[in-house]
Amino acid sequence: MTRPALPRFALGDPLPAPTSSDELRLRLATRRSAPAQALTEPGPSAEEIGDILTLGARSPDHGKLFPWRLVVLGRQSRAELAEALTPLAALQPEPNKAKAVLGKLTAAPVTIMVVSAPVPSQKVPEWEQQLSAGAVCMNLEHAANALGYSASWITDWYSYDPQALDILDVGGGEQVAGFVHIGTLAEAPLERPRPDLADRVTWRP
After folding, report:
1. What CATH architecture does domain 35-168 belong to?
2. pTM score of the predicted model
C-alpha cells in the first residue's frame, strides 16, 4: 500500500496549527518549535500534563536506567525563579540580553524542566544517558503537539550558570537538558530553513 506523500512547505509558508484530529504524519511533517515568549493560554490541563509526561517518559533508554528527572513548573514557581535569577543576569557577558531571555521562562502557561541525571553504569556510557534526556525533551514536544498545543525546547544561560543551577535545584552530576515550554500561539509559525537531505544523508547498499 502506497503511503500519501508528506506535505512540503516553502520558506515563510504559514504552518497549520496542530490539532488533536490531525493525522500523525501531518503533525510530524509540520513540527516547528514555537517562540517561547509568544506562548499564551490556553495551556494543557493537569490531566493533559499527565499525558504529556507519560508520553515523554516513553523515550529510548538503554539499560532502563531512567537517567533523567522532570520538574513541572507553573506560573508562580517560574515567576519566583525569574526573580531569583535576575541578579545573575547582570553578571552575564550580555546582561541586557540575559535579563530579556528570562521572559521565555515566564511566558508559557506551563514549563517542564528536563534534568539529565546519569547514574553509575558499567554498561551504559554517560553520553547515551544524556541522549536519553534529550529524547525525553523531544517526546514532550511531540506529545504537546499531538494534544493541539505548541511547544518550545530551549536552555538559555541559566541552564549552565553554576549559581543558577543552585537556584534551579540541579545537583552535582546533573545538567539541564532543556526547558519545554507549552502553550498556544496566536498566529501560525512560519516555516524555517530545513537541511538539504542530499547533503546530510549517505545511502550505503
Report:
1. 3-Layer(aba) Sandwich (3.40)
2. 0.86
